[in-house]
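sorry for the late reply, my laptop died twice this morning and i had to redo everyting from scratch. anyway the thing you sent over, i finally got around to it. pasting the sequence first so we're on the same page, its 193 residues, then the predicted structure underneath. double check i copied it right bc i was rushing
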Amino acid sequence: MDRCNELCTKEATGYCALCAALAERERFIAWWMKGGVLRAGMRAVQPSHARAIEAHKAVVWRTIAALWHQGQWAVLDEVMAPTVVSHTSHTGEDGGRAVHGLDGIREVVAAWRRAFPDLHVTLDDCLVDGDTVVARWTCRGTHQGVFRGLAPTGQRVTFTGMTIARLAQGKIVEQWTEEDGVHLYQQLGLLRP
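ok and here's the structure:
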């Protein structure tokens, strides 16, 4: 750039403040277009974002491993808010009504663990978007206790499901679970295929 405008002082004094500002602007635009600002900003944000994703996944996995697999009730306080609300599909004890609070969660998990003492959940997929975690899982167990009034059959069952959990301050505050109850009921002889 030779002159910024007709009042440019570059020829007379060797320096023009407006020419310098315009040149700096051109350098900034070139840097911006190459992704300089975005790349620098993303580098700063990515580590904390990646940590948040892994922390959310860890809460879901801890819920499965400690609570569902081992019945460690103390974990409830670590992974779920005291006011947690859990919405379940048709395989819920009460036909799909929401369960409120830690005591409600404890009762549901205990009932499942009594009916299927070897209950094991495999986490097939886990996706995180902000404070929402979507987990796709497969559950296996042997019917060794009373389940929905059905005496133990000794039947080995496998069924799938998905849970969407909303977290706040590192704890599950609300979750929605859809299980393949039809397939489970068929395996137990409660429904015909």
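The two ends are 80 Å apart (CA to CA).
thats about all i looked at so far, will dig more tmrw
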